[in-house]
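Following up on my earlier thread - several people asked me to post the actual chain instead of describing it. Fair enough. Here it is, all 354 residues.
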Amino acid sequence: MPSDTSSTPAIIAPANADRDSLHTLPLCIIPVQTLGLKSARMIKNAQLNSVVEVYRDREIGSGQVEIEKLPQKFNWPASPTHPDFTLLRKLAVMPSYDVYSLRVQLRDHGIEVNQSDALRLSPDKTKELSGLMRNFTRPLLSQIYGDVAGGIETFEDVLRLFRDPDIEKARQRLMTMAETLGIDIFTIPKFLEDYADIFLSLSYYRQCLDRITPTVYEFIDGLKDIKKNYQMRSNMSLMSTCEEMRSTFTDLLVSVTGRLESFERATKDMWTGLSAERFRQLERFIKAYHTTMGGILCALTVKMDAWAEAFPRANVGGPVRRADFIMTDMRHGLSLIRKITKSAPSLSDIANAA
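Reply from S.P.:
Thanks for posting it. Predicted structure:
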């Protein structure tokens, strides 16, 4: 039977949870031809392998297909290579599927998306991050307008300043911002859009890090219990794996935390001699790390979610069961994680380039 293909654009909208996720990619936003893929997702499984999830059901679980088995699944010919197979292989090697990493990676691979807003966080997530965003919106407005910025809570409030019914007041605010930043008044909307987006990305990564950090430390504490167990201590392979995981996950937390703190320090420095060019330098600085931060946080999230699902409480699963899970699921993908970290540009190189 021939593969079920169509050039008709997908009409399936990605769920908010997929748009906001680090490790799920709804294929409806990618120009796949095979109809059976348009409602599927590419996900990172517990072993950090990319697979196509063709269905998910609360009762029967998740139906996953390995990338290399897709031709058999969809009856694609061996030659020539089906374009969807080529496309999905490119997607499979991407370390994270968060929207900010995808912008970089899809562009590098020359892959378009079907929907203009597909690579943006959902409105619900954006609203959820508004508290963290205040740290970035208030300084901008305070620097330019002083006390008028006191009522700013969301970035929509920033835009509302320029929609004042008093046309002369709104015009004066725009002129003040343009003069302070050293830009043309007509480029302010683009500047504000970019400004909001880059700091929204930092807020998003910070929230992801804050969410997963306690679970990482709980997991590391669990490793200590396994290493103390008399029965487990004689298993040298297990002991070596536990130590490798402790070291790797600790280093990952230190790495991504350090980068976020570097960005936050750079943000504070930006207010000395504020200009559009200083912001553009910081923007380039942060974007250079989107793929690395997304990849690290994706790996940590996938691993810790798998552990939390298998052992939701400290009294669930004994040392033997936990040791088996570590050896069969948790240890896989560690070399990939280390590769992501090593591939990151150095902070000094980016700073010098900026």
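DSSP finds 17 helices and four strands in the chain. That should answer part of your original question.
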